[in-house]
What we know:
- By secondary structure, the chain is mainly beta.
- It has one helix at 138-155, and strands spanning 2-7, 15-19, 25-31, 38-43, 48-55, 62-67, 70-78, 85-89, 94-98, 103-107, 113-120, 127-132.
- 12% of the residues lie in helices and 49% in strands.
- The radius of gyration is 14 Å and the shape is globular.
- The chain starts with a strand and ends with a helix.
Amino acid sequence: MRMVFKQRFFSWLDSYDIYDVEGATLYTVEGKMSFGHCLQVMDAAGNHVGTLKEKVFRFLPQFEIYIGDVLRGSVQKEFSFLTPKFHVDFNGWQVEGNFLEWDYEIRDAHGRTVASVSKEILHWTDTYVIDVKDPEDALYALMLVLAIDAEKCSRN
C-alpha cells in the first residue's frame, strides 16, 4: 500500500493530507494549539483515529503515540553526533536509514521491513511517500512518520 503524505501549503499549524496513489484522502492531520506538538489524525470520514503529543520540558524531544485514546508507544530522539537516531517504543519496531535525507525504513522485531519512507523533491511543501507492506499497519506507520517529522520541525 502506498501513501502520499503532503504538508498543506497555507496553514498556521502543522497540517497534512495523506492520499492513496489514486489521490483519494486516507487521513487528515491537524495541528492543535498546545505546548509542544499535538497532532490529531482523522480517517477519510473525519473520525478521530490517533494523536501524537510531544512531551515538553525534556532535554531531547519525545513524542507519545495514541491510537484512539490509548497510549500505544513513544518515539524519542537519542543523543548522537551528525546523524539523528531514535529510540522507538512502539509495536516492537525500529527505524533505520538516512533521516536527514528522509530515506528510511521501519522494521519489525525480526528485521522485516514494515514500511519504507522517502521524500519527493521539487514540491512546494514537504511530500513523502510511505510504502507499507501490510495495509493494516498503515495508521501505525503514519503515526511513526509523523513523530519523526515533528522532531525534525522541533529541531528547526
